[in-house]
Structures are given as structure tokens and as C-alpha cells.
Amino acid sequence: MDVVTSFYNVEKDQNPERLKQVPLPVVSPIPGDVVALLAGANLKWDALPRTAKNAVLWSLGYVRYGSEAEYTRVLALCPSGSSATVTMDSIQVSDKAVACDTVYSYCGYSKWINKACSAFSPSLAKCAINTSAVSSRVGSTKTSVYWGYTVDNYPLPPDVTLLKNDPLATSIPYSIHIQPVADLCATTSVLASTVPCINYTPLLSSTCAIAPSVKMQAWLTELSQATTLPPIP
Description:
Blueprint: H1 3-13, H2 16-20, H3 32-39, H4 50-59, E1 62-64, E2 71-73, E3 75-77, E4 101-104, E5 112-115, E6 127-129, E7 139-140, E8 161-164, E9 174-177, H5 180-183, E10 194-199, E11 207-208, H6 214-226
Parallel strand pairs: 6-10, 7-8
Antiparallel strand pairs: 1-2, 3-6, 3-11, 4-5, 8-9, 9-10
Helix pairs in contact: 1-4
């Protein structure tokens, strides 16, 4: 799922019901890389709509794991020695990368991908979680959902959330769920994109930087052109 575009479309549509479903991040202090990204577009955090706040946090690798004030930054896994940057959208596992795909129609929406298999390879993981940076408040998955894929026109806004997986079902300890509510539409369904993550250790050298997507940069430019804020000193 293209998370930035999904938030952008919610903002442009201005549907009151969908806007109410967008979480309001209350991170404090604002991470330095977030401040720097916005400063490059002559923007400040408080001037952003909540849709853009969520999109910016996602695009720099920040995911919520507890309340709207509890975020941690994930690390992207890359080939050893790589100096490339990646986007958060690119670390989502494609449905084609996981075996046992079956197409279903759930919850009144068309063509969801169901992954009923429980044996997944840890090599599919594309991010790492620094467990020292999160508390015990990380919730657990409530279904057999570990990761999956859905079309970009899912009717609810993204609600990016880090959850623990059941260790009896998969050796991959965490998943970033793009829309946890969608996981509950069927008992063994995978209805919203999720990102499998392993535990970070100091010996893990195959990480690379996460950079905002072209779409995120374009949205910030659009917001900058629409604002009348004075230049940032």
C-alpha cells in the first residue's frame, strides 16, 4: 500500500468521517530529522494537517507501538555494505513473495489476499526493531495475521501500528500493520499490508537509511506553496 498517497487522498477528499479516523500523532519532542525535512520545505510541524503528520512520520521510518505519543524508528534491512537509501513503502513484502496466496472477497470489499499459511521465512523481513527503544506496551496481533497485501483503495485511512507476533506461529517477532482493523475482517485473513521485522542487534550491519518518497517530497512542496507562514529563521 502506498501509505503517503493514501493519507494524501484522505486530505484532498476532506470526507469528515475518514478524517476523524486519522490518528493524531503527539510525539514530543519532534524528532530532529522530521524538523530538518520540514525546514527544507519551509514548514513547521504544527502547521501540518494530521494526515501529513502521519505521512511524514511513516516516510522517515517512525511507527507507533503504543499510544499516539509512543513511536519508534525502524531500521531498514539492506544487502551488507549497501549505502543506498530506501523508502518505507519499498520494504513492504509483496504478496507475490509469500506462498499460499488465495484470493477472497471479505468485508464487502473486493479481492483481498489471504495468507492462511503459518510457515514463513525470516529472510522475508525487511526491517529491524530496536527493542531497547520500545516499552512493553507493544500490543500483540489478535488474529493469525503476520503480513500481507491489499489494494491501495482500502476505504479506511492507514493506521500504522507495530505489533508482536505469536512466537508459536512465526519466528519473525514483529510486524508493522498498515491497518490493524482490516486484520479482523476474517479469522485467518491478511487484509492490509504489513511489514515483517526482526530484532535489532549491534551485530546487525546490514541496515541502510530510510528516505522520504518522491510523493512525500511533492506533498511537502505543495503544502509549502499553500502556506503563508514566514520563513523559518
